[in-house]
Specification:
Number of strands: 0
Number of domains: 1
Order of helices and strands: HHHHH
Strand content: under 5%
Distance between the termini: 54 Å
Largest sheet: none
Shape: flat
Structural class: mainly alpha
Length: about 120
């Protein structure tokens, strides 16, 4: 039972991390100390998408699910939980590059605004 609760909690943390990667720059506009946390998180998120790296949180969650007597899942968190909801079947590496590019563009725009704000 504890393994399942831990796996579900980690899944939620994983989702929050993805949202932070995408939109954490907006939080930096409000809370400047987050600038030490968000750029590394965003770079990691982009690296995972651009280079098809495995996310350690996915492996950790799968291990917890196995400990709970459940089956884990193949692929990563995004493939298992988000793609079936957001994307149609047939996700390609090109689409993954597009997702990484969206993260990059959002964050470049936010940080350009942040730099402009600090310069004035």
């Amino acid at each position: 039972m504890l393994y399942r609760i831990a796996a579900d909690g980690l899944m939620l943390l994983h989702l929050l991390f993805i949202v932070f990667v995408l939109f954490g720059g907006l939080l930096v506009l409000k809370w400047r100390p987050l600038i030490w946390w968000h750029p590394p998180a965003a770079l990691w998120g982009m690296a995972v998408e651009f280079f098809h790296l495995p996310c350690p949180l996915t492996d950790w969650e799968n291990r917890m699910r196995h400990g709970a007597g459940q089956t884990g899942y193949g692929g990563g968190f995004i493939e298992h939980y988000l793609w079936p909801v957001i994307y149609p079947a047939g996700l390609t590496p090109g689409i993954q590059l597009g997702l990484g590019s969206v993260v990059l563009v959002i964050n470049v725009l936010v940080y350009l605004r942040l730099i402009k704000r600090w310069a004035t």
